[in-house]
Protein 1
Amino acid sequence: MRQAFVASTALRPMAQQLLQDRSPAAYAGVEAYARAHSKEDAGALAWLVAGYAHVLDREFAKAIDPLNRAKPQAGDLGDYVAYYLGTSYLQAGRIAEAVAALTNFSTVYPESLLIRDAQVTYGSALSLEGRAAEAVALLEKNRTPVRADVELALGRAYAAAGENVKAVEALGNVYYNMPTSAEADTAYSELRRLGAGGLLPGAIWTERKTRADLLMKGRRYGDAATEYRDLLNQVSAADRPPIELAMADALYRGGRGREAKPVLLSMGSLSGDANAQRLFILGGIARGSDDNNGFYDTVDELRKSAPASSWLEQSLLSAANLHLVHHEYDQAIDLYRELQQSFPHGARASYAHWKAAWFTLRQGHNENAKTQFEEQIERYASGAETPAALYWRARLAEEDNDPVMARAYYEKLSERYRNYYYAELGRQRLERMPQPADPRHYALLDRVPPLGIGGKVTASEPPADDLRVQKAQLLGNGGLVDFAVRELQAAASADGGSWAPAETAQLYHENGHYDRGIQVMKRSAPSYFSLDIPDLPRPYWEALFPKAYWAELKRFSTANGLDPYLVASLIRQESEFNPYAVSQKNAVGLMQLLPKTGKLVAKQVKLKKYNASQLFTPAVNLQLGTRYFRGMVDRFGGSFEYALAAYNAGSERVDEWLGQGKYRDPQEFVESIPFTETREYVQAILRNADVYKQLYGAP
């Protein structure tokens, strides 16, 4: 496999291209490589890639030839070739050949990760070949842990064997208990074919509610609302209110508040938590339709009827934020305080306390703000707002000409929150402050808890002779990243080492999936921003902060007078370096440009023959995105804080926020941004740019 890995390295870019767009030219390139290496393992890998690409295109008949060509030299990738060949035969209707391809799969490939998948395909083929009893026996052995594809295949096998009751049980398990699976609709069709009609055999209302609840949990709100509505015809009058409430909730979450409102109003009087939820949804509908007074009225009703309810807690936060957006600061402060005092141990208490404290400062009440910042640290030392409280309490100490106190707070901030936004700001201010002759100890700072991950993380190497690791590397050369990651995870599970996250991230990065590599490392080291650079292995940092598309990124950043690291940080926040990212608002590519913005900037830079699809091309996206961002910076007098806020929320909103009184500096403006998403966006990008500089030095 080592030899095959080295020999097939040149295949990687062609395989990546094929698996990404599956164009005729990409197929031709991989197949030409396969023919040129027909007597080598590298050729077998190329044929596997071509066959798998056809499977992705659901061109199963076309997949058969390349997969057969892969067989003679498949070696340790034989299980992948055999599985997809058997699958292709089955889907192409060549049942006998599917059976033959998979008959001895578990015997020939006893260590394969595909054994269970192969058994499902094999069982389906046996059933279609008229050997339903054998299929049932095989699939029953593979029934746990529960999987939708196994249950579907088993239900079909039971139906083919004439055991309709057991068939309905298996198919119903998919339909009711796994409604968001890809197999759920097929299971329903199979149930209908068995004569179940609109109401499936054995279905009681609790099973149908389970299906509706799971659809709701899976955010399939439209489907959930339909299920709840149908369920209303089956339940008794006493059981209707919770179903109606659930249906209204599904409609509301699905953006159909107008349909939900009459349902909620017609429900009459409810009690307890159900009524609180009803009022909460009505309030959300009012807020969504800009009926602010109607929303505030529901908050008043919740205060009276459910003062300890979590629905009131959520509503108070929404009401405070709404007042904040409308610059009604006194009302916002009162509601944040009410939220914190009514729910002092709730999940939103620290945030609410901080917002009240912060806007107390913005109102010019510095003495009260000092007290509240200290209360923030004392009461909610583990909260996300502690770095901000430390920084701004230090700033107020500076304004009081108390550099000793200010220095102590900045030092605590830098020590505990090493790479946070406010830690870097604190270090910048420390550089301008003299060392005190008589430093003082502040007991309040002892409240800040130490980092709870045990300090420095040590890297480990994967076992060099592990066949799964080698197999993963070979699969990676074929762009078969998901297969490779699965092999790596299996190897790590058996080995017990800590090397898997870094190896997985590297595999993703080598195949251009920078976003997936970043996500792996975020899960593996969730507190990385609290660590100093030497405390985390270098591969971790490089996976978290990749220099992707660096040549073009640096060139276009420099051409527009921008720091390449700031642009890299912006991209990391926008798309995590996924050039194919598309947002809910149809923003596209690395720098998440709207097509209309791309068209406008393309004219400015005189980009010939431009079309919107070019935004998926990294170089084009970077060229247009850096020019667009430069325009934002120029519009706001060179301030990157204002420009970043505008990039996220729009220039008009930034103009509006800048009009809300004077700010000490851009940092005070950033903390005052009323949109949490935008505030955290700006802080994250500036923070990340500093980490890039620490990691890589001069760009």
Protein 2
Amino acid sequence: MFFSYIFFFAFGILTAQIDSALADGDDVSFTIGVIEDRHRQFKIADLIHRDFETLSNHSPNYGLSESVFWFKVEAVNRGRDSVFLLKVQNANINNLVFYSITNGQIGVQKLPNTTPVYQREFNTQYPIFRVKLLPDSSTAFFFQASGDGVMEIPITIGKSATILEWVANDQLYFGIYSGIIAVMFLYNFFLYLSTNDRQYLYYVLYILVVGLTQACLKGYAAKFLWPDSTWLIVKANHVITVLAGVFSILFTFNFLHVKHFFKAVYAALCATIAIYVISAVLYLFGHYIIGQQILQVNTALSSALVLLSGFYIFYKKKYKPALFFCIAWSFFLGGVIIYIMKDAGVLPFNSFTNNSILIGSALEAALLSFALADKINIYKKEKEESQAEALLISKENEKLIREQNIILEQRVEERTHALQESNESLQNTLTHLKETQAQLVEAEKMASLGQLTAGVAHEINNPINFVTSNVAPLKRDVDMVWNAMDEIENIALSDLSLSEKKQRINAYKEELDLEYLKVEVDFLLKGMHEGAYRTAEIVKSLRIFSRVDEDSLKFADINEGLESTLVILNSVVKEGVAVDKKYGELPLVECYPGKLNQVFLNIITNALYAINKKFDGNSGGILEIKTEADTENIYISIRDNGIGMPTEVKEKIFEPFFTTKEVGEGTGLGMSIAYNTIKKHQGEIKIESSVGEGVKFLIVLPRKQQTQ
């Protein structure tokens, strides 16, 4: 920090001499008087003849104040020129009103800081007024200043060329500063893109907001970035200053690893970030003075903490990058201190003192950039050490690998032999499992076939018995008819008279009771016809159920398949079980009909089993079968009011070999086959169950199979 002060002092002397040389040739001297209007009640007419407090310098600074300040400038022109410029070196004074008195008339020039630069007479952000000073005479004029920022009023009166040259030099200084900041920003931004190191990201964000802060304080942001935005002209200075403070702390955290090396200061700096945010909120909601007071105090506190953390981490933790950080931060703080001493009147107002923060922040940005660049050397050294260590480790590993290869080869041979034996054993086991699985599936098929055969046999046996029982009486009646025909033929061929023949034929008909014989023959034929028709229907249902083309997709009637299944299972439906069929109008569905009939058979069989377990042949059992369709799917609901199933059974119902039936009553494959069949049809099967209330199976099938 000592060297930074030496640098600033030498540069300040040189700049002060240059500023003095610029002002000496204007032949104008002036004094300034001030009246502070704390209650904002004075008018210019009230103050023309009042006494003003004479100031000792031309750069009064009243800090943060809500008062209105009235200034009386008494200028003496010892030269020949009569037109001069009055410049106020503060671009952030909210309101500035210039009053001139000519022949008793008061002229007014208003210049609020929200007036765009391009609309001003002079293309500069600093307030400049044109004044007329008669040669070899004294002239007095007034101006009023008020605002919500620092009330610093550096006043300069000079020839137009002198003032405009000063403005050009100021713009040149800031241009140089902006160039340095831009170079540092771009250089380190590209380094961030190359290294992906977050320290470079924090750094470029920090110098970006620092550059914007200086642009706001010097008025260049309002001039170039947002000349037409009143809100930004008024609010941006404070908000961007807050961001500069926050990002400086975040960069410090990341660059110095404060959380790791100095936890106490880390906590304190986190608190200052919160205070920065509070000051910004207060300012944005109209509490300008208190917001800036908090900002000033917090900035001083956080700067001291940052510098303290840098020195501590360098001296105590021997962290070399902290040295660069301390030097860079010292230059910046040196510039801030000189700027504050200028505001306090300790140092004179000149180009150097007025731009000391620019100089300090530019040097800080450059030195921090060097510090970050030095980290590349650190990374390079660490990488070389790491590579050397890795090379040594690789050589040791190579030696170990050579030694282990021999052992590994032996173990590989042993392991290969063991694996071959295991593979043979596994292959035998797999073959056995496949055979067992095939046997179990075949057993399920045989069980279904046995159930099917028993049902069909029972169903066909009834109508066949009905037919066979009618054959004997029908044969007897037919024989009687043939005998009657023979007897009538004999009577007709006899020599009896016609009346005797008729009498004997009628007597024979009465003896045979021919009318009853006709009724009985009709009844027997009708019974045989019904038996034959019932047998044909059963055979038809059997043909529908056991589709021979089940391995190929075809369009089938689902209602027809359900009905054929119920016909097959008619013998299983015991008395007391009511079958409620609610068939909707269904389109033909693309499916494997035989496989779906097997699904219906398995689910309905289980439903009847559950009903019988609950009611045991008594009345009350209900089996409901319902079908419906929409534009994409058909829905088949099979519901019973049997014993139901608990949650643990419901979760396992589709697992192979899982069954709740007694040993010998089921293989446990029926529902697994049903589930896989529905999946094969790109459908789904859902279960709703309550213990003691029954089970509902809902099958959802697409009307047409999608190509897979």
Protein 3
Amino acid sequence: MNEQSASLNKINHQGMLTLTVMITTIMQVLDSTIANVALPHMQGNLGATQDQITWVLTSYILSSAIGMTLASFLSMRFGRRQLFLVSIVGFTVSSILCGTAGSLNTLVLYRLFQGLFGASFIPLSQSILLDIYPKEKHGYALALWGMGIMVGPIIGPVVGGYLTDAYSWRWVFFVNVPVGVLAFTGIYLLLDEIKSTEKSPFDLKGFILIAMFLSCLQVALDRGEQLDWFDSLEIRAEFAISVLSLSLFIFHILKKENPYLRPALFMDRNFAICLVLSFVVGAILQSPLALMPDFLQELMNYPVLTAGLITASRGIGTMISMFLVGRLIGKIESRFLVLIGLLILSYSLNQMTEFNLLMGYWPIIWSGVIMGFGLGFIFVPLSALAFSTLVPAYRTEGSGLYNLIRNIGGSIGISLSTNFLIRKTQMFHANLGEFMNPYNKTFALSGVSNPSMYKQQDFLKWNNKITQEATTLAYLNTFKAIMFFAIVSMFLLFLVRKQSSLSGEIKPDMKDLD
């Protein structure tokens, strides 16, 4: 009887801990999408421009990427439980600060802290699930965890839209407080501390160099359009620092005995190519998510909640295809699954290039479902390809780098697509504006034959119309550019080795295994 009771308690403990780490994972993923639909409201409230308001997204993604690479070292040095608890507290406090921010600069600063503290949630949650479940149930545990990852993009825009519509955009951050308290309580009561006996040295110099490279590059991309790119001394300095930091980082890891990233990782051809594809997927994943809320609310005049519901359709498509891919991945080669995903993705982006302001919302929902369906065909097979030839000694380090590259792709993708959108809007407005003059018959008013009798408000009305048309054309061209980006990336798959010939081809450097 006692053994049966102990077994039941163990199962309950396992289930509650699984639920707790899933809640924490969902909270972190949710915050990468929940703020998207609230961006237009933040922009108006904080007095930001269209390119400036995207810093709210890119700062979070960038700091999450940088912080994720520290999770393994910090958990070994201070303990997994302690790191988890500190991260939850820091994430929750940062969320409160984000909700109380009075300016764009303070909001971006608090989002940086939020991303840094939340960066460890995903790697810690994954490792905890693998520890509390026996090896034969690892697939089941990771499937549960994967469902949590998928739920975030679905409910994020909906929750963000509802909170912004019913209360204000500040509640998209305040909502993390009760979730954070619940997660902290669960981890504190249920997770036992496991300290690693391994005390590997931390390459502080390598970390600083890669952080400087990424940060300066991101700031330059975010502020480039506003400061007229290389005409600005600041932008030239930021690009120079980023190039110098990257050069020093490469030289450093080639010379150091235990570098921040081991060069042998990049000698694996499959892994190196999949890193590039991971960057592309990150850019394609985040760019439309950042652009669509503004398109729906500012141009199509949808309420913020409706925009959130429409945006959530992509997550539904991803969840459907993830279940399908789970059955196909052992039967069809991963390269072909990724190719199918990129083709579906390109088709959905092509549909988006045909959007117009007179259509209903169903074409937008349908294209979102198709895009999500395509992304689901890419995530798992691409990960399988990336690690198929990588020796076990490199997998932990490779996992951190793989996720880092995908996040950086998302952050840079948002900046580049926003800058492209602004440039195209200016170009189309200038082209269309050439025809706006009192002698153009297009602008003739009924019963008015003298051009001098045109009123200023008539031209202001037409200028607003031209601005709307120019912005719409700019969005369609941006979607087309993202589509070409996806099409070109398909050719990289031809450089990936077939899975049937993968075994025994990559030999580890024994010095790196010491």
Protein 4
Amino acid sequence: MKRKIVIIGGVAGGATAAARLRRNSEEDQIIMFEKGPHVSFSNCALPYHLSGVIKEADHLVLMNPELFLKQYNIDARVNSEVIAIDRTKKVVTVKNLGTGEVYTETYDKLILSPGATPIVPAIPGIEKVNVFTIRNVVDIDRLNQFVKQLETNEVTVIGGGYVGVEAAENLRKGGYQVSLIEATNQILRPFDYDMVQIFHKVLMDNEVNLIVGDKVEKFEENKVVLSSGRVVKADAVVMAIGVAPETHLAKEAGLEIGDTGAIKVDKNYQTSDSDIYAVGDAIEVYHALTHSVTKLSLAGPALKQARSVADHINNRSTLNKGYIGSSAIKIFEYNGASTGLNESLIQALNLKINYQVVRIILSDKVGIMPDATPMHFKLLFEVPTGKILGAQAIGKGDAIKRIDVIATAIKFGGTVEDLKDLELSYAPPFSTAKDIVNYAGYVGSNLLNGDFKQVNVDKVRELVENDSYIVDVRERYEYERGHLKEAINIPLSELRGRISEIPMDKPVYLHCRTGQRSYNAVRALQNVGYQNVYNITGSFLGVSFYEYYNDKLSNREPIVTEYNFK
């Protein structure tokens, strides 16, 4: 039987639902309303227009109404805002933003995909600066055209989430003087504080004026005034502090709103009205690891939701296992990805989880390859089950591949023991024969078995300041190039002949460059009776990255004689 299906909103969710609906049925009439001028565009690629990576704004547009009609027989109406939903009559009221005409359209099934709106708080003096947000092609084109006309090239981005960081990076690549302001103590919350310091350093190295832990208090003429009293010049301000789910239509229609402030949906993405579905940034979803509802502004989940809705409307079976939140980012020469839980989220939600941490640094490919670089990797697993909870990877190499493996393992209920047994593709230009993912399984299993003890890089400053007994097992030439202050150098190659120098009556902390040699030193000492020995995870390379940004930011005394980043 022919039905009329109306979709409110295009881009990822709406356009995907429309295309899937058509693949499921040639009979249905499908109408999609989009308030903006573009029915489908690459939302996540918007910041890359600022650097010229995507040269023309039109290149961000993926589909136009004419092509949608020809290829899919879908009536896509742009510049058309749905201003009301009458659930009783099953009618939507539409305003043509070009002509001002207001008309109604009936529906049998309705899909809401309105997305989210950038948050622009009423900060005092906001009218004194040129404020921009990034939501669609029109926004990014307007920002790009404006900054091209600037004489001083000073742009300030407020907000250290994905959009803010990507905007800052691409503006810097475009030749602008960029400040990035984040009110909390770090950017990019999907990464833990100890991992994100790598990105803090990368931004600093690329001359982005990164300011964390300082809130915007007010604006003055082309200036941002922070709570610390610091003043930042800003001929343009990009507001990227976050987004709010677009729920106005849903609320006006009497649909149920969840505790998160987003539209409440069931496992089939049906709202409190069984004939109305909702997908994308406007809804709340089930988090498979926290066992609670959350908001998740990611394109991948929106596409999955849209497909499920189109299938459910056509009586096809669907499956909703919840979401774990996998994401990736590129910041200058470094790549990063994360999935699942991190320590910050566990603490913020007060989750009663007993977990352990694997923190390792390995070469992203065979070390003799000329482009081999360190990969920083952190994995959380549950104790005593070994179930994988989440992971983060940052490096110049393929961090995304590693996190995708972990995300897959989490979805299948994998443990650290499973990681040991994974057969991953290998060739010297791509990885090592035992990939960092495998190593994470080895280290996790050893920790689970109580084979050794460790401390993370974020505890090292405290150890140094408390005159703890620290042994550097790198070779002498490495030690001379930079080391922890007061650390004693006993190279692994000399360890067995100098064991008597190491006390047995106090805690001993060992490190090398990345933690591998010092792990071997810990095991060697344990084998001859030492009980109170600890491996410093990430070791000197990890400590250097962790300490650097805050050392420079606060002008505090370093705990190293020289940093090492290679």
